[in-house]
Structures are given as structure tokens and as C-alpha cells.
Amino acid sequence: MPLAAPPLPERIRTLAATSRAAQLVVDGVRCPVSGAADSRGRPVLLVRPGEVLHGLRGDAVVSVSLAATRRLGEVEHPRGLIEVQGWAEAVPEDEAREAAVAISAHSADEGLFEALERYGSPEAPRLLRLDVGQVVYLTGEESGTLDADEYLDASPDPLAEVAEQVLAHVNGSHRPQLAAGVGRLLGLPAESAWLWELDRYGATVRLGDDDPALVRFPWPVPAGTGLCLETALRAILCTC
Fold this sequence. Notes:
CATH topology of the largest domain: Pnp Oxidase, Chain A
CATH superfamily of the largest domain: Electron Transport, Fmn-binding Protein, Chain A
Number of helices: 7
Number of strands: 11
Radius of gyration: 20 Å
Number of domains: 2
Strand content: 35-45%
């Protein structure tokens, strides 16, 4: 029987890849933070002079919350919260540009340029990352913990980038077709239907506004390419 959803570590890594850093906790103190996750899923942070981690010269035990959201129309909705616990360390100079690019996808901050151009200067912003110890996740009704190896050894959905593009297109231009197709499959009206998640194993549709429900539609076989993903989704949009 095909999997109805991605393996949990893959799902959490995929969420992390589309998340922004929402909060930093150092010694029990909560601090604002600017950051994201790098290609390995490690939180990377832009730390300015005067901020609590800027003077770091060794390892500091911290946690960083990564927040994944979904924009439906004009409203941003939470998809999941991932708390990465570990040890803050400086991003090596030869990896600093990659870290800055990951952060810039969520926050176009001029401090990133300064952190690169003045790397190593005590007065410049710094780029830090977490050496992952464990990961606590909360997504929908699921919650739990992954150890560092489970999290770091997993990879995001290889179709995640194209899936996000297709999802945005459907939600922007084809919601009537989505509602009609889902209604036929369920045998009841599909009010306020939005495509919520899309991956190589299936699609999740959000139904309703006041008390929304998430309905999963697994593919008969996992999609291996972006074209296969679009073809599988078309079966939902065009069901007769």
C-alpha cells in the first residue's frame, strides 16, 4: 500500500525549509531573531551588535523556533512550529554566503551584506547557526521529538519547490475547480476549499472557515517528477 503522507522526518525537514526563524531563547530569555534554515535544516541567524549572541566566542545552548505558515487569500495561517534545540556557533566564512542567501529568502536585510563584507569584524553583524541537539515539532494535531540524526539525515521533499509553485497557482486561479473536484470525491459540498499541502505522496485540502478540516488525498503511486505531480493533482481538479 502506498504511503498516504511523507515520512515524518521528511515532512519536518520540508516544513523547516519553508520556515522563518520566529524566536530565539537563550538561558531561558526570549529574544527576537532574524533567520531561517539552511540546506541541511540547521537554523542560521543574523545577529547584530548589541544582541545577546553577538559576543559569542564559544558554544551557547539555545533554541530557535521556526514557524511555517500558509497564505490563503489575504490571511496568513500557521502550518507548523519547529523548535530546534542545540548549540550556537559561528558560520564558517566559506559557508557564510549560503547562510545569508537562506535568510534573505525570508528577510531582505541589508545587515546580511554587511555580515558578509565585514566578516570577522567585531563591529559587524554576525552569522550564526545551530549545531542541532534535538527537534520538537507541532504541526496540526501532531507533536513529538526527533533526535539530531533523525532530523539531519532526512531530506526535504525533492518536489517541494515545484509543489509550492503549483499550490500557489491553484489557490490563486483554480479554487472553483478544486472545490468542485473535492465535492465530487467526497460526495458533499466542499465549502471554502484551499489547497493546504502538496507533496510527492498526495495533497491535503483545507475545507471550511470557522472550523476548518484537513482532508488528505493520497496519490496511487508517489509522484517522481513535477509533471507527475501536476498530473496527479489534475485528477482531483477534474474528477467527474
